[in-house]
Amino acid sequence: MFVHNKKEGHHLKQYTIPALDVSAGVEAKAYVDTLTKPIGSLGKLEEIVITLAEIQGRKQPSINRLGVLVFAADHGIVEEGISAFPQLVTRQMVQNMAVGGAAINVFSRQQQAEFSLVDVGVMGESFSAPVKDRKIRQGSENFLRTEAMTQEEVEKALEIGYEEAMALFEKGVDFLVVGEVGIGNTTTSSAVVAAITGLDPEELVGYGTGISSKQHLHKITVVREALALHQPNSSDGYDVLRKVGGLELAAMVGAMLAAASKRVPIILDGFISTAAACVAETISQGATGYMLLGHQSMEPGHQKAFQYLGKEPILSLSMRLGEGTGAAVAFSIIQSAVLMINEMATFESAGVSGKN
């Protein structure tokens, strides 16, 4: 379905998000309360399974297969000296992931996930298989000087993200982690989250890959000046992405919207993933209802972003790697919740006496 956007003079895709099935959540809660345990004694596991019931629209949620979808791109803002690592590291990390050597590969194998790695804007020539070549351009522009992308590039990145997620669903994936690789993307995410929430960049900007205190102050200044220059519209995700976003971040948004439109639960990772979730919600209201928050990152902006979305992390392991790693690790906990509602006996079936 397409809607005409008069302001831009072209068509924007409309991502239709179904309403959560609240009655399925009520049924799930009632059923969980009949299981052989004191009411509420499995704490957050019970909350997780009720959320999943609302997402999947059934009393007893199920998991067939996890999909891990990683998008990679470079960022022009790296020119401003905001990262501890050179831009080339994006390329090197993609090469490491392609041969299965990154943390996300390890955790994906542990969870027997369907893993997909997509280049949407890494500097240099295209990679060979298994990296999917969906390169839109050679990195984003330096958004301290000019807009990060064109409107057309933003829309293309969203569409690629959408298509790549749909390709995983066709393979039987019914649970999704969306990860990323891109030197400079904590700066991009800080700008995106600041633009949407209205928070001061000082509250959001962290140390990323391990910059110095001096670089940290510079990074805050860079984000502040970029926002002052572009004045992104907080309620328009396309505008925010175009002005201060990144190619992989935009692709992540598209993948999240694909999942939400198909009632597929999304496990959010850290700061970059949650920044993408903030954008997804501005583009299609209700998208974040389909998201669980895997963990709490060490990045200060992450906590502000997930509080803005009204989410609570499943884990807090002092992680700050990105790639989708925290979300992939949290999947084990989610599996436990699903097994609980599907395999535990009820008081009645087990012949156990209930509470007096």
UniProtKB/TrEMBL annotation:
Its EC number is 2.4.2.21. It catalyses: 5,6-dimethylbenzimidazole + nicotinate beta-D-ribonucleotide = alpha-ribazole 5'-phosphate + nicotinate + H(+). SUPFAM superfamilies: Nicotinate mononucleotide:5,6-dimethylbenzimidazole phosphoribosyltransferase (CobT) (SSF52733). Catalyzes the synthesis of alpha-ribazole-5'-phosphate from nicotinate mononucleotide (NAMN) and 5,6-dimethylbenzimidazole (DMB). This is Nicotinate-nucleotide--dimethylbenzimidazole phosphoribosyltransferase. Keywords: Cobalamin biosynthesis, Glycosyltransferase, Transferase. Pathway: Nucleoside biosynthesis; alpha-ribazole biosynthesis; alpha-ribazole from 5,6-dimethylbenzimidazole: step 1/2. GO terms for molecular function: glycosyltransferase activity. InterPro entries: Nict_dMeBzImd_PRibTrfase, Nict_dMeBzImd_PRibTrfase_bact, Nict_dMeBzImd_PRibTrfase_N, Nict_dMeBzImd_PRibTrfase_sf. Belongs to the CobT family. It is an enzyme of class 2 (transferase). The keyword Transferase applies. Pfam families: DBI_PRT (PF02277). The active site is at E323.
